[in-house]
Task: structure prediction
Amino acid sequence: MRAVCHAELRVITKPNNNHKFDFENQNFTPQQLIEKVKNGHWKYLGPNRSYQRLIVNHHNYGEVVLIVRKKRLKNGKLIYDVLICNCCFYTANRIDKAYSRRWNIEVQFKYYKQHLNLGQTHFRKLGAIQSSLYCVAIAGILVALYCRQLTRIISFRKAVKQIMSFFTSKEVVYI
Result:
């Protein structure tokens, strides 16, 4: 995280529950922080969503911003989560929007990797990572094009299964 700060990059993610943050001269995990600030003053973040912004210290990362988010679900249940950002001048709205954009990308790649069997890869070089991402993107585009050619609507997962069965069938067709 310090290297990221020196490189002037921003990190916006969810902290693990084993992180300890110094808040009011005590160490708290994100879950403990949620319990600590639950009854505090919440600010409006969007429909059925609110937040609290905390500037805290981490023993390795230094000063960071924690955004504790609260969301009311349709059934009335409240859920909480915490975002961490190394740029202390970012507003809660900016952190929330950046994380939302990032989360959509993460979900999309997770979906591709699970259904296209590209998930168990570990790379050490930037070129290998880029090549893998290009392959995932191309495979996703091919599946989307296949889905558009069909007369009925099918799920991405079903389209992948149909394409995979086509390529793995034992039957050989000579042209």
